[in-house]
Amino acid sequence: MGEDSQPEEVRHSVTDRGADDTSASPATAGSDRPNAELKEEGRLNQLLLDSLPHPAMLIRADRTVLAANRIAREMGAMIEAPCWQTFGQSLYIPGEDKQHINDHDTVPPGGTHCTFCLADEALEQHQPTSNPKLWAFDRTWDTHWIPLTDDVYLHYAVDVTERKRAEEALRESEERHRTILDGTVEGILVADTETKRFVYTNPALCNMLGYSEKELAEMGVADIHPRESLKYVLSEFEAQASGEKSLASEIPCLRKDGTTIYADINTAPAMIDGRPCNVGFFTDVTERRLAEEALRLAHGKLLTVRE
Questions:
Q1: N or C: which end of the chain has fewer CB within 10 A?
Q2: Rounded to the nearest 5 degrees, what angle is found at the Cα of 99, between the Cα atoms of 95 and 101?
Q3: Count of alpha carbons within 13 Å of 154, Cβ hemisphere only?
Q4: Over 90: is that where the pLDDT of 44 sits?
Q5: What average pLDDT does range 29-53 have in this prediction?
Q6: Does the model's pTM come out above 0.85?
Q7: What are the structural domain ranges in the chain?
Q8: How far apart are CA 223 and CA 13, in angstroms?
């Protein structure tokens, strides 16, 4: 419904003050202070609003705009006009209210507002409310309603479209990487090099050690190695974290059932979520070690027989 088709009761055109008038302020209503003081306060309020780098308005409980900054005015906001009609372009009010306006050339008796508006909740509870992911005007907005008095609130919205797109792209990338890591036959374990707590484990490592992913998330380096080998294991961990070496061979690992297996751990240091980590790739070499030990024993027996 275009501007020209709006009924006079709905249109609320600006008369004595232009849409860019800077004297509108909730603090000036009903005041007996000198006119110059009121104008100065209105000017300062407007400067404060205009300093915000996103659309911002002071609005009464009945959705009448009292003041709007430059960005909000450029998007259609008009002083002494309904925010839902000018700024919201009547796009987001309930369908039945749109029909009532079309049929009767006036707003419904109880008024109307955008379906996503949380102003009533903010004013009733005297607490700021927000919607961090509001879709409007083909953009994503972090939207806030902040009560200033019993019937006036500050409404502003931050365009977070690009940030949300970046976050979504990062999530998709993380999901792809996790799918790859989860499907790897090698055990993968990521440990914080400072706290030595586990950050990530893949299913292959869980199977190798007999723990669930949830259990390992509560554990650290000291929990998966025999106590008598821990000093050596930690020295290897530190050497890998500092970049002195990448491969730690035949590291004893303690399974949940108490048995010990041996693993070659090839590690690369990495920064994950801003934290220094060791990314370890575990290859179970227990059978190889047993075979080598059996071969050594057999070779020793052979030498004894020959002697």
A1: C
A2: 115
A3: 17
A4: no
A5: 71
A6: no
A7: 8-164, 183-291
A8: 72
CATH topology of domain 183-291: Beta-Lactamase (3.30.450)
Q: 52, 54, 56: which is closest to 67 by C-alpha? A: 56
CA 47, CA 61: separation in Å to the nearest integer? 23
Among 159, 143, 169, residue whose Cα is nearest residue 57 = 143
DSSP letter (8 states) at residue 151? S
SS3 call for 261: strand
Domain made up of 8-164: CATH architecture: 2-Layer Sandwich (3.30)
Asked if residue 141 has pLDDT above 60, the reply is yes
Instruction: Give the confidence band of 297 by pLDDT, cuts at 50, 70, 90.
Output: confident
Closest by Cα among 283, 237, 292 to 261: 283
Tokens read off for 260: 């010990």
Which residue blocks in the chain are alpha helix, DSSP H?
8-11, 35-50, 70-74, 95-104, 119-125, 161-182, 203-209, 213-217, 230-241, 286-306
